[in-house]
């Protein structure tokens, strides 16, 4: 059986086979010192985006060799072939060609102490038996929660908006990230486990516990950006040794215990699938805490950021579309999926945010066999066992696919021509046009995330006409502070 993604970047057709084979430019430098040089370029001397741009210019190629962080001493082999265009990138989704074992965080893997001693689903290759079982379990959880998503999320964003309004009134601005973190944690916990976390031993600390837990795993991929902290000290602290589990152990155990107690039916189903109860529970914490909460923690600020940059004209147009559809329904004013499907601009805006700044920018895969990867103008030979790395924000801004790729264009995905571009929106470890399955590595919550973004915008513009923000940078994602809100003039 072949995977749904096996149609991507398939073996060369007679036409594609005529592409010239080009040697992959670049090198890895002197062992040990080359990776450290690239790490300093990546984090400090150039920064992430310029690291890639400068090499594209130097090699005149969007495919090249480089060392990817963190390198010594965390990653034993930082060597990677970098893919930065829409033609080569999709090979990373092809499970017939690449292996995903232990590559969720790239060239290194955090200690399994963070996940109860288990390699959770995100670190499993689809060829491993437990991958399919766990993916099936996650998809069944989402399917069973389908009818609860809209009402539960509406309840939570109403609290979110109330808290934002209070902060803007009392302090002059509201920290969207902090308020969103609490809202996202509460929503995920209530949706997956039907529990209000504040009524458990987690209390009101859930988002902070998970944020620390996530940070300890991803720290080697971050720069804190603290001006007065010398680069060599930050590099020593973040990028030289893996963080230990013990500082976040007690908080993680609290969340695990509550999830275990609340998930009896899910754990029963897991046992029937052949998964041990404790392994299933650690996977539940990871998929709810890391994948879902961690994703929403990053994505919602990005959504608000880019919509704010669209300006008042976009805000008014979105408000008009959303309100006209919601208010055109006779009688019951409950929001439905069919209403959301009619909001064409709202959908396009969500896809454009996912295109211009994918919430998870990195993808890795290790070649299962000798490959030829086809680019736009040339083909490249890859040897079995070589690491492939893709930086999604470059692939989703490929100028050979998207006009004005660096611009945020809200209407980009409208109409038939816009729909045809959706296969180049790559944010979910697959194309947007594909669906999560047991035999691919696409995020099981891909459709949930798109739905929640639409719901966020719908709730926002039913309540407000326009807004302004201050935007900053965080180690992962953007900082958003809302500085003004104009209440809706016609509800």
From TrEMBL:
GO terms for molecular function: heme binding; iron ion binding; lyase activity; monooxygenase activity; oxidoreductase activity, acting on paired donors, with incorporation or reduction of molecular oxygen. The keyword Iron applies. Keywords: Heme, Iron, Lyase, Metal-binding. It comes from the Eukaryota. GO terms for biological process: carboxylic acid metabolic process; secondary metabolite biosynthetic process; sterol metabolic process. Heme binds at residue 443. InterPro entries: Cyt_P450 (IPR001128), Cyt_P450_E_grp-IV (IPR002403), Cyt_P450_sf (IPR036396). Its cofactor is heme. Pfam families: p450. This is Allene oxide synthase.
């Amino acid at each position: 059986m072949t995977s749904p993604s096996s149609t991507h970047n398939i073996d060369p057709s007679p036409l594609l086979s005529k592409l010239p084979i080009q040697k992959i430019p670049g090198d890895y430098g002197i062992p040990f010192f080359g990776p450290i040089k690239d790490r300093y370029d990546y984090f400090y001397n150039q920064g992430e985006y310029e690291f890639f741009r400068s090499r594209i210019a130097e090699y005149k190629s969007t495919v090249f060799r480089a060392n990817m962080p963190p390198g010594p001493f965390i990653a034993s082999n930082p060597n990677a072939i970098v893919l930065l265009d829409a033609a080569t990138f999709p090979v990373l989704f092809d499970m017939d060609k690449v292996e995903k074992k232990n590559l969720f965080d790239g060239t290194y893997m955090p200690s399994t102490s963070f996940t109860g001693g288990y390699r959770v689903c995100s670190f499993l290759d689809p060829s491993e038996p437990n991958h399919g079982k766990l993916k099936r379990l996650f998809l069944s959880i989402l399917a069973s929660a389908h009818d609860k998503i809209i009402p539960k999320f509406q309840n939570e964003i109403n609290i979110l908006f109330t808290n934002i309004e209070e902060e803007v009134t009392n302090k002059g601005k509201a920290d969207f990230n902090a308020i969103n973190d609490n809202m996202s944690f509460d929503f995920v916990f209530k949706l997956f486990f039907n529990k209000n976390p504040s009524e458990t031993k987690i209390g009101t600390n859930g988002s902070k516990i998970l944020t620390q837990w996530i940070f300890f795993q991803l720290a080697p991929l971050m720069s804190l950006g603290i001006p007065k902290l010398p680069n060599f000290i930050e590099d020593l602290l973040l990028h030289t040794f893996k963080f230990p589990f013990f500082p976040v152990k007690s908080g993680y155990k609290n969340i695990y215990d509550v999830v275990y107690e609340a998930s009896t039916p899910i754990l029963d189903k897991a046992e029937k699938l052949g998964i041990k109860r404790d392994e299933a529970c650690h996977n539940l914490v990871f998929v709810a805490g890391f994948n879902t909460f961690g994703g929403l923690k990053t994505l919602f600020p990005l959504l608000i950021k880019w919509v704010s940059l669209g300006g008042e004209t976009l805000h008014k147009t979105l408000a008009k579309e959303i309100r006209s559809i919601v208010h055109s329904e006779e009688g019951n004013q409950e929001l439905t999926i069919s209403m959301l499907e009619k909001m064409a601009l709202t959908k396009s805006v969500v896809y454009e945010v996912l295109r211009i700044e994918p919430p998870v920018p990195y993808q890795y895969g290790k070649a299962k066999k000798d490959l030829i990867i086809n680019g736009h103008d040339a083909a490249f030979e890859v040897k079995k066992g070589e690491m492939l790395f893709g930086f999604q924000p470059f692939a989703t801004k490929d100028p050979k696919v998207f006009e004005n790729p660096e611009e945020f264009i809200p209407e980009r995905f409208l109409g038939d021509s816009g729909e045809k571009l959706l296969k180049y929106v790559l944010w979910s470890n697959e194309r947007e046009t594909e669906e999560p399955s047991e035999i691919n590595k696409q995020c099981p919550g891909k459709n949930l995330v798109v739905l929640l973004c639409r719901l966020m915008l719908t709730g926002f513009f039913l309540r407000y006409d326009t807004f302004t923000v201050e935007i900053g940078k965080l180690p992962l994602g953007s900082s958003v502070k809302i500085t003004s809100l104009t209440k809706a003039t016609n509800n």
